[in-house]
Every structure is written in C-alpha cells, then in structure tokens.
Fold:
Amino acid sequence: MMGGKNSELVGAVAGSVIFHAVLIVLLATVFTESSEMVVSEEDLDFVPAELVKELPNTPQMQQVMPKRERPQFELEPVKTSSLLNEDFSSNIDLDELKELEMVDVGSESGMEGADSMVKVAMQERDFIRNYQALIQRTFESRWRQPPGTRVGTVAYLSVRFAPNGDVLSFQMSQKSGNIRFDQSVMRAAALVKRIPRLRDIPPSLFKKHFASMRVRMIKEAN
Structure:
C-alpha cells in the first residue's frame, strides 16, 4: 500500500519538474525572438528621433539603421545683374545733353510779348487808381465837414455812374455812427452831378471798376 503511494508521489513530482522545464524553455524562446525583432526602415520613419536613440544597439539594428548622412546644400553664387556692370556712358549723346542744358525758355519775341503784357497790366492798374482818386477828390471837394468831428470817423457811399460820367444814384452803405457827420456826407454826394472825365474810360474797364464803386469819406487830421 505504501509502495503505491510513493510511486504516485514520485510520478507527480517528475511531472511537475517536466512541466516547469518546458515552461522555462518556452519563455526563453519568446524572449530571444523579441530581442532579435527586426525593424524595417519604413517603420523607423514613423518612430520619433528620441525613441530611436533608445533602441538597442544590436547588430540587427545596425543593419536596419545605416548611417544617414546629412544632405549637403551648396549655395549658388549670387548672380549680379549685367546692368550693374554695363557702361551707359557710351549710350549718352553729349551733343543732345548740351542742347538740353541750353534750352531757351522762350524766344526773343516771346519775351518781348511777356514784357509788353506786364507793362500793359501796370499801366491799367495805374489808370484805375488815378480815376478812383479823381472820384474821391470830387466828392471830398463838395464836402463840408461838421466841426468837432473826431479824427478817424468814417462813412462809406455806394455810387452808380453812367458811362458819360453822370451820377445815377448814391446811398450810405456804411454809417459812421455820428448823425451830423453822416448828414454832411449825404449833402456832399447830392452836390456831385457828373464827373465828365469818366467818359474817357474804356468801356470794359468802366463796367468792371467804375459802373458801381465805393467812396470812403473819412475825417482826417488837419
């Protein structure tokens, strides 16, 4: 009876030993295959550089990961435009340049015409001023200023003339604020009936400057 139990115990132990031995062999095989796993270059393209550094440096990995050389870029020399080196002086016509420098701003006849226009304009200005002064003196010659008027007191008349020099109308366009002074100005204007010399004024100038004009009446210091 005891002999049967011992044989069963020995058989169980032997079976356990064999089982563990087989298990150890299987585990060793799996570990060896995993350590010799081959990684293709295509797979490495998707592996971050940080992880590639951590891969084991085995002969198999060295075969898969050949040394990659950095591409060398050669800078092409800067091409300078041919225009920078071209001599343009040969294309310049010196004769034409001299002609440009000596261009006459106007012909002699043109300059004479401009001078004559300036002279005419100055003569016209003086002509207008002389006749305005004539009209001013004519009204002042009829004016009897009231005594005691303050110096600088001024009033303005608006007067309309006919081409023959007749006074068509007049009115006070700006009062002085002194009733006696303003009345004296209106009495003087009523005495001016005609200024004969106005008929000598050319029609264009008369219409523009004398058909209607403003006359200033001011008290000046004696």
